[in-house]
Amino acid sequence: MQVYIDGKFFPQSKASISVYDHGFLYGDGVFEGIRIYNNNIFMLDEHINRLYDSAKAIKLKMPLSKTELKNAVKQTHKVNGLKDGYIRLIVTRGIGDLGIDTRMCSKPSVIVIVDKIALYPEKLYKDGMEIITASTQRTPVSALNPQIKSMNYLNNILAKIEAKNAGVNEALMLNTSGNVVECSGDNIFVYRNDILITPPTFIGALDGVTRAIVKKIAEREGLKVEELIFSRHEVYTADECFLTGTAAEIIPVVKVDGREIGNGKPGKITKLLINKFKKVTGEK
Ligand code: PMP
Q1: Rounded to whole angstroms, how far apart are CA atoms 207 and 47?
Q2: Which CATH superfamily is domain 122-281 in?
């Protein structure tokens, strides 16, 4: 694969950044994960807008206009010619000194990587996935707002390690009040009492692009959709549960902390939304 770095293309083995880049030294930077479906870069505008918001929040001045950045992404896709795949778009603070003063960094770097992705085994999309609750809480909004999709994913990584230690693929993360926020790399939805609920972003969930599509599809299907604050009790006693994300797409959850959700199989509403989502992405 050819990797885009600041306007030039490099083969994967030669694609490198400076060890003085604050993205490497401190996780000081922002990123997006974007899908390619059938040669189409899916929801590119939404991802670019969120990237700009993340950059704004950390006072990182984007080195390219939105149009220039979109062209860089499109060009990288074209050079690599992947019909279906995944794009990682990264903007780092750039090269500085060994301190954390951002004013020492002269120019942010833009990196675009195109590759294949398969987040979870195919079987789990049919049978449903088991998850656990992580003891690692989601970073409080007041400390580092998770709406900033930053290059520091240690909070999520710690939760993912807990999931893997428990022999499952994903971990539910709560905020410091014990309310459900999201999973380590996906948003969560629960279907309960004929209402589809998902936590509001202000309690620490990422404003997921897939989450927004799912909300829209569900409303179009006549479902009642609400952003609500809820605890694990509402998850344990839900009729259905599923996770959403660019890489994950929509994946049913059938067991949480050893409790079967509904009848322990992917629910009717989840399956309906998966089918409708495939129509939106243009998958078979
Ligand atoms: N939450 C977290 C923590 C994520 O990293 C992601 C993206 N992988 C999501 C939710 C889902 O967001 P999106 O649908 O925009 O990919």
Answers
A1: 11
A2: D-amino Acid Aminotransferase, subunit A, domain 2 (3.20.10.10)
